[in-house]
Design a protein that fits this description.
With about 400 residues, the protein is an alpha/beta fold. About 45% of the residues lie in helices and about 15% in strands. The chain contains 17 helices and 13 strands. It starts with a strand and ends with a helix.
Amino acid sequence: MKTQAFVIADDPVYPGWLEHAAGANLDVKPIAAREPEAVLIRFGSERRVDIVFCEFDSRNLAQRVQLVERLLERHPQLPVVGLGASDNADLVLAAMRAGARDFFVLRRDDATLGVQIARLLRRSAAGAASAVASPQKPGRVYGMLSAHPHDSIAFVAEHLALALTEAQPNQRVLLMDLATPTGAAAIFLNLAQTYSVLDAINDAHRCDETLVDTAFTRHTSGLYVLSLPEDLLGRPHIDGEELLRLLRVLSSLFAHIVVTVDGLLPLKTLTGFVNQVDRLLLLSDQSIMKSRHNKYMLRVLRQEGCSLDRAGLVVDNYRRRLGLEPANLAELFDLPLLIALQSDSFARVTAMNSGEPIYAVSQKDPFWLGIKQLAEMLMAGQAVAKPPVLGLLKRLLG
């Protein structure tokens, strides 16, 4: 049985090209590119549609995006493929964000076009089958939180995500950096991202594996990264419901997701985030300022009914004989201590400034060894028992 393919295009060259390049198994039906509603009515009258090809160019971009979005709202399992005269990055990204599963360039890869279409149809059939089958086990989401905005949030989270990638090279790992300073994770990894975490939140309702592979920035280690734009001034507006929706979608696409947030998020968004993550890592150091801010933030979260039974403390940049020992801080926050990270200050700053992970600067740096230990704990679901009560510290820090 021939594949029923519908082609929405202004240029009449596309239907003939597809039919010739894809072979005799493709039955191509051109559809006049009229108003989106007229095209949708035409689709509603068809008995069978296997795949849709839609031309995108700069003149009709907004209209075609709207058409594809509305078509997929009514037929979410229908495979849609973008078409274009070139692989213009803006057109490809717009097609993918609208919901297209691939993008074919006119008269390119003609020899393999039939194979690509067959692969798309198989994936579509597999996706439809999995939608009615029992859902796969979702990936785990780890939140890295500190009340006090600081570049250490992104630095620690970046290395945790890299350690998870190294430990499970066949699994996909994502780092989402929502903390301030904005864009820190992308800067520390020397990544020039064109698709930010704000774009992904806006695309939460249409995010899928194709969009991930096409738009998400990827580090040479294999780690996927979504960060805030580094040129962003001030705190961006983040739709909390869309953020949580995106995390639910991404947890079906990634084995591990590390998300950074700080205390500047709106309280409603922060509480929703804390309640949704699988493990919450409170990041602090031995300073009075960060300790007090974290204590106040945890107090508010508890008052708002947040469950902190999955939370644990990570102490960064630990120094002996500095006071405020990690066990004492854990008692102050009423959280289990997961790990105290030590690092060489010179290696740390060098790694930040060079855009390289710290193991590229100093492979045996104690910070990287501690991070790998933390990753192993999280993958094993391990927690550390709460320390004994030391009430004097609470009185000293208010």
